[in-house]
Design goal:
The complex is a heterodimer.
Chain A (H helix, E strand, L loop, with lengths): L16 H22 L25 H4 L14 H5 L9 E6 L5 E4 H7 L3 E8 L4 E11 H8 L7 E6 L21 E5 H5 L4 E6 L2 E2 L9 E3 L12 E7 L6 H5 L23 E4 L10 E2 L7 H4 L13
Parallel strand pairs in A: 1-10, 4-11
Antiparallel strand pairs in A: 1-2, 3-4, 4-7, 5-6, 5-10, 7-8, 7-9, 11-12
Chain B lengths: L5 E4 L2 E4 L5 H20 L7 H30 L1 E2 L4 H23 L4 H10 L1 H18 L3 H7 L1 H8 L1 H16 L5 H24 L9
Antiparallel strand pairs in B: 1-2, 1-3
Classes of the chains: A alpha+beta, B mainly alpha.
Chain lengths: 314, 214
Amino acid sequence: MLIRRPTDILPSEITPREVYFNRRQWMVGAAGLALAAALPKGLEAAPLSAAKSPFSTDEKKTSREDVTSYNNYYEFGTGKEDPAAKAGSLKTSPWTVKVDGMVGKPAEFAVEDLIKSSALEERIYRMRCVEGWSMVIPWVGFPLADLIKRVEPLGSAKYVAFETAYRPDEMPGVGSFFPVLEWPYVEGLRLDEAMHPLTILAVGLYGETLPNQNGAPIRLVVPWKYGFKGIKSITRISFVDKQPETSWNKQAANEYGFYANVNPNVDHPRWSQATERRIGEGGLFVKRRPTLMFNGYAEQVASLYTGMDLRKFY
Amino acid sequence: MAGRASVQADGKSFALPQVPKIAVYIVGFIPAVWLFYAGITDQLGADPMRYLEQGLGLWALRFLIATLTVTPLRQLFNVNLLRYRRALGLLAFYYAVLHLLTYLVLDQGLDGPAIVADIVKRPYITIGMATFVILVPLAVTSNNAAIRRMGGQAWAKLHRLVYLAAIGAALHFVLVVKSWPPEPLVYAAIVAALLGYRLIRSLVKKPSPRRRPA
């Protein structure tokens, strides 16, 4: 009988410590998954601690129920209730965001690392949809500028392009015979807009991690722009020197511009943008309220557009 | 005119179980009653006004389509629902009234200048209003007295405006949404098929001898 002495064991045969521990992690994870599957959906959200922010509005918040059940996320269907009903199939963990292009330090960030390494803040923002309704949402996130500083953009970078995940197996809306939009969903900002302190990457709302229908695990929030600029479930952020393509602009360039700043004086070609309905206010007898220039954030952002014809750059 | 609901098979006609016309109205108003009830009791989701407004509009279009289905059903499948066509057409009109009232009162809060601006500047509202205006004379003349007064031919001619109303309603729906989601396109396709059928039939029927006016 040949008994190998320890020295005979090749280093390559030894299970590395990480894998060994990963196996445990995997088992803990599997147990967690089984538990999660057994629990009702809402309980999967994990609490996030976040500092208050002077940028928050003190307006009445839209209920969590409304914020998480009335969504536009066309990858899961065009109905407002579709995302809440169908987005559960999106696998949001593990999740990485690739940051590339004109940067000194391109990187791939795991979302959980971003959450751990960022100073999370609660930002209660107004959200104005291009369709003429609005909400007040308590986001949890961190300034996009924090991430941008980490990757050190080159002088040549002028714009930031964003991309949503494209997963036909998990997104029932993208495989349709007659696509509503060209997938994957893409968005973009000018670098100074991206660096603005109001611009955040949100990872949660109402003090918990994002529900899938709201763009889990990480999404963009730019409160002075129409909601469609807030790209969801981001997988890639690229720094570029030319104005990037944006999904709705590709779909109908005369209706949805690159800037898409909330502006009561520039109507959508098919409907007025002068007023809006605040969701959850008044029920059937909701009263329209005037839409504010830059969604009420003019004081902070108007200077970004000095000298620009906002009718032309809508 | 007052044909019985019937199915003709092998040249023989047998009566479908007779349903009183009032039943069509009662069943037809169930969606409206439910929508208002659900709206007032906060069961229409996050944006109840919009849900009510769109729901009523959608039912108007559905009844308009049902009205246009009566003739092809009779010609192609020998199913005669002519007896109920007036009720279906009037239901379409009543839903259009409720849809318009919801827009004027609940959506726009009777803001005159905003409504006028909408009608003038927004093609989908212009088309929606025009469609409603077309439906008014049809609804007003949907009774036996009007047929007698106008004479069958003139009445029938006037009521061909329903084709225009159907096009208007379908277009109104397509233009109100972002991008090209499937639902309004499906309705537009149904309207196109129902009108296309009539167009083709009228072209095919042309060779048949025409009576000259005396």
